[in-house]
Amino acid sequence: MWHIIKKSNIGRRLTNFGIKSEKDFFEEVFRPQRGLISQEEQERLKHATVAIPGLGGVGGTHLISLARSGVGRFKIAEFDVFEPRNISRQYGARVDTLGRPKGKVMLEEAFRINPFLQLEFYEEGITPENINAFLEGVDVVIDGIEFFALEARKLLYDTAREKGIPLITAAPLGFSASLLVFHPEESPSFEEYFAIKPDMSPMEKALLFALGLAPKPFFLKYLDLKSIDLKAGQGPASVIACYLCSALAAMEALRIILGKPGLKPVPHYLQIDLFLHKMHQGYLKKGNKSASQRLKFFYLKRKLKI
């Protein structure tokens, strides 16, 4: 594990603008948020810690969105490297970063925005051995794990629940995004909500996860099901949905950190589809165990030939 807590030097460019200290930086950079976020709330964001495991399609943008909002401390985990297929949607993926570790690239990106950030980086990703350290002292978790990595995801959700940490997941599906907030006391567990059993096939698990994320699958009206290969762990993705996810997740992270009203934890869910101009707020009391979800599961199993 490469573990880093870093404070960068200010640099000449900041001093050219009269910014000579960390205090100057926070006052000037985040001044445009006044009227939405008070000075006292901005200070709370500065001292808040957000954990983001996974820095791919949505995770990298989560990090950037919250750094630009004034969150001052992060724990990030990522073991993968950038590949050509990542350029279409992942923050930090460019021709000049191909082959480089996503975590190290995103560290650089974050420090270019705020040189006073405090960051811990787990270059091996999250594991049973480091999960407790990764979540220690964290105010909120935002799930950025790759869609099909369900074992790592269950480890994350279960440990966050044990530690009493709220967890946010925002999933890009077609040109839509779904938002779920797992509250450690008010929400069902990962297993209870998604109804994923150990003896299921990886494809069945992935399908149930998708159904729990988006109980109203608007995107099926325009998405070509032939483009989905659950066995190979592949499906279509768009930067449009990824950016929408990060906006939704960042808003809920600020709501939780600042104690703002309006939090609607799982089994509440929110879905927004930009292509169809649709929004739906729902309440799935029994999660994937409900009759409607079971019918969708068996229908899609046949359609996808699982």
What is this structure's SSE topology?
Blueprint: H1 12-15, H2 22-29, H3 39-46, E1 49-53, H4 59-69, E2 73-77, H5 102-113, E3 118-122, H6 131-135, E4 140-143, H7 150-162, E5 167-173, E6 176-182, H8 190-194, H9 202-213, H10 239-258, E7 268-273, E8 278-283, H11 291-303
Parallel strand pairs: 1-2, 1-4, 2-3, 4-5
Antiparallel strand pairs: 5-6, 6-7, 7-8
Helix pairs in contact: 4-5, 4-10, 9-11
Query: What's the count of strands?
Result: 8
Quote the beta fraction: 5-15%
Strand order of the largest sheet: 3-2-1-4-5-6-7-8
| Fourth-tier CATH superfamily name | NAD(P)-binding Rossmann-like Domain
Instruction: Give the helix tally.
Output: 11
- Give the mean pLDDT: 93
Report the biggest beta sheet as strand number plus sense, adding barrel if it closes: 8 strands, mixed
User: Cα-atom Rg, whole angstroms?
Assistant: 19 Å
Tally of individual domains: 1
**Within the CATH hierarchy, at the fold level, what is the topology?**
Rossmann fold
Choose one word for the global shape.
globular
CATH architecture: 3-Layer(aba) Sandwich
> At the first level of CATH, what is the class?
Alpha Beta
The first-to-last residue Cα distance is 38 Å
State the helical fraction. 25-40%
Given helix and strand content, the structural type is alpha/beta
Regions with pLDDT < 50 over 5+ consecutive residues? Answer: 1-7
Please write the string of helix (H) and strand (E) elements.
HHHEHEHEHEHEEHHHEEH
Textual characterization of the structure:
The protein is α/β, with parallel strands linked by helices. It contains eleven helices and eight strands. The protein has helices at residues 12-15, 22-29, 39-46, 59-69, 102-113, 131-135, 150-162, 190-194, 202-213, 239-258, 291-303, and strands at 49-53, 73-77, 118-122, 140-143, 167-173, 176-182, 268-273, 278-283. An eight-stranded mixed β-sheet has the order 3-2-1-4-5-6-7-8, sandwiched between helices. α4 (59-69) runs parallel beside α5 (102-113). It is globular and about 65 Å long. Mean pLDDT is 93; it is low at 1-7.
